Amino acid sequence: MSAAAAAAGTRRNPRVVLEARVRQGVSRVHAAWFPILQAAIAAGIAFGLARYVVHHPYPFFAPVCAWVALGYTADRSVRKVAELAVGVALGVALGDVLVHLIGNGVWQVAVVVFLAATIGRFIDRGALLTTQAGVQALVIVGLPALAASGGPLGRWIDAAIGGVVALAVALLTPRDPRRHSRALAHSACDELAGVLRLFARGLRDASSNDVEDALVRARASQPAIDEWSETAKNAGELARISPTIRRFRDELSALEGRAVLVDRAMRNTRVLVRRSLPAVEAGNHDLSGMADLVDATARATDELSAALASGRDPARARTELLTVARGLDPFAMTDWQVQSLVMLQRSLVVDLLEAAGTGPQAAREALPEI
Fold first, then answer.
1. Structural domains of the chain ordered from first start
2. pTM of the entire predicted model
């Protein structure tokens, strides 16, 4: 890589990273704004009930419990909400009682945390309950006594109100566990398609700056794929044990597997883009044909993104990817550098074919023999 090209790529990198972060941030906000609104309203309702119905002047733990239990994601199983609500209420109750009995200080903090976490672990195997029990007990020990209202158990009553409101929201709010995973799949595949389009432009125009920007964008896009993988995995595990969403188990399991394959495709894309830089800088004319294949792969990835977002079968994506696969013959290229790049693209297309629903063997058989 020339020094000038490296300097230009370095100057452009912060912009590409910022654009990727902004896109991912907008996607996260789009997926989370309604759950956040629900949790905010629940916190307000809990505060109002504790202040105006129970007449506690400082109902701090009512909105805290409602917010902690509901959180900001749409993946709200009743069990998870209950774990968090019970953990908060347990910690508050135990902390209130012990502070009234033994006061607060260095050894009291240790005692309260030990007892709260031990009791939480006894009640349930969930880590969330135990963690929240310890945290809220610590908050009680650390808060001044004047913040308490309603007697020794006043703050526990506030926490219980918040927990009840959170459970009511979780039970009464209709939710489709596939929606969040679909949205994240759409975002991740869009990022991959964008990287491929930028890479294709760099190959066609012999622009090392565009190729470098594609590599930077591919690296910056990894959090979007990681979030999809984690969410899909959690949703799939929940579907296997929850009777209420078991009917979605097949699609959630498929989304979980596709997240792994698209992650692999993005990693292969990064290797492909990185290995192409010497050929681009050398002005290799054989790259224009490969640019068409990369562009076609980007269009197929767009189709895959749209299909996963809507939950339909990605048949069009499979058809387009099969067409691309049949054109990935390294011996059709005369330059050895381009041949090695075609070999790398074969792995990428196989990953995308499998993500689009083609079996592993059929995906490999679609490639020309070598």
1. 32-172 (no CATH), 176-365 (1.20.58.220)
2. 0.66
